[in-house]
Specification:
Pfam families: DUF362 (PF04015). This protein has about 325 residues and is of the alpha/beta class. It has 11 helices and 14 strands. It folds into 2 domains: about 5-220, LarA, N-terminal domain (Rossmann fold); about 240-329, no CATH class. It is globular.
């Protein structure tokens, strides 16, 4: 039996930063499986567009993990995709994923600047080639994420809720919770996470869409919840920096890395008292290709009067660019 383990290594940031899976959680899974006699294990992941999986693999502690337990690591950014029919949508899935007999998903419970939350369902996006990740944003994210659940079956989910960032996908504002969650239904898991983070599943459309496609159940009243320590733990605080910061942005089909670098840059400007002086809304995303405008971020807005090049530009580049724009205007 070939068993795949899928952590979240979105960017080269250590887990304490709140954006990536703790290697200790995956080590526990590997040790358990090897003790039970399973030897054909593989860890697979592809970082978001703009960062290299090879760097995340090392910085996040997975290189040493794989060497210690003699488990191969597959970089999905280096793989070609194969078309898979998912209901009425065709998606390109990395070929190695299609050869698995059993998949263990190890996402981080955290916020997301475009989809509000990211957990079990969206973590499968790391098993796509970069070109398909970009296409997901052009398709609107929610529909393809929901359909992705038809292409990649998750057999077991172990959610890292140790210190996920409740606002930013790549971390930076970790919230210590010190627990893990387990499930076999990714839709029910994500619906439960919505409840923990004070959202309704309907506010994260890919969850209800996935349920409608038959991927799983979105009604948490159907969940059987068991807390191993007898206490489900403290509630997640209502941290929502993204909501306020997003008011400064006009976003159309932007990629996660580009938008994900913009939001923390805006947060830095806010902390310095500069964001309130920005009177022009910032355009970002593939929907602005070949369009005219005033202020844009990224390669897709290269026809704008003022734009920052890069695909994606870094958080630091965005911060310096917008700081100069604000002070000069």
């Amino acid at each position: 039996m070939r068993i795949g383990i899928k952590p979240n290594l979105v960017a080269p940031m250590e887990a304490y930063w709140g954006g990536t899976t703790h290697p200790e959680v995956v080590a526990g899974i590997v040790e358990y499986l090897q003790e039970k006699g399973f030897s054909n294990l593989v860890i697979m992941e592809g970082s978001w567009v703009g960062d290299k999986t090879s760097e995340s693999y090392e910085v996040c502690g997975f290189k040493s993990l794989c060497e210690k337990y003699n488990v191969p690591f597959l970089d999905m950014q280096k793989e070609k995709g194969a078309p898979v029919q998912c209901g009425d949508m065709t998606l390109n899935i990395c070929k190695s994923v299609l050869d698995l007999d059993f998949l263990i998903n190890v996402p981080v419970l955290k916020g997301h600047c475009q989809t509000k939350i990211t957990c079990a369902l969206k973590n499968m996006k790391g098993l796509l080639p970069n070109s398909e990740k970009r296409r997901f944003h052009a398709l609107g994210l929610h529909d393809p994420i929901a359909h992705l659940g038809l292409a990649i079956h998750q057999d077991f989910i172990m959610v890292d809720n140790i210190c996920g960032d409740l606002d930013f996908e790549d971390g930076g504002n970790p919230v210590e919770m010190n627990r893990v969650l387990a499930a076999v239904d990714p839709v029910l898991m994500d619906a439960y996470v919505c409840d923990m983070m004070y959202y309704q599943p309907e506010e994260v459309p890919y969850i209800t869409k996935a349920a409608a496609l038959g991927v799983g159940c979105a009604d948490i009243r159907q969940a059987e919840i068991r807390a191993l320590d007898g206490n489900p733990g403290a509630p997640i605080p209502k941290s929502r920096k993204v909501v306020e910061l997003a008011d400064a942005v006009e976003e159309v089909e932007s990629c996660s890395a580009c938008y994900g670098n913009l939001i923390p840059a805006l947060d830095r400007l806010k902390q310095e008292g500069l964001l309130s002086n920005l009177t022009t809304r910032i355009s970002i995303g593939q929907g602005y290709r070949n369009q005219k405008g005033l202020l844009g971020i990224g390669h897709c807005t290269r026809s704008f009067t003022c734009h920052l090049k890069g695909c994606p530009p870094t958080e630091e580049e965005i911060y310096e660019f917008l700081k100069s724009y604000i002070t000069e205007t």
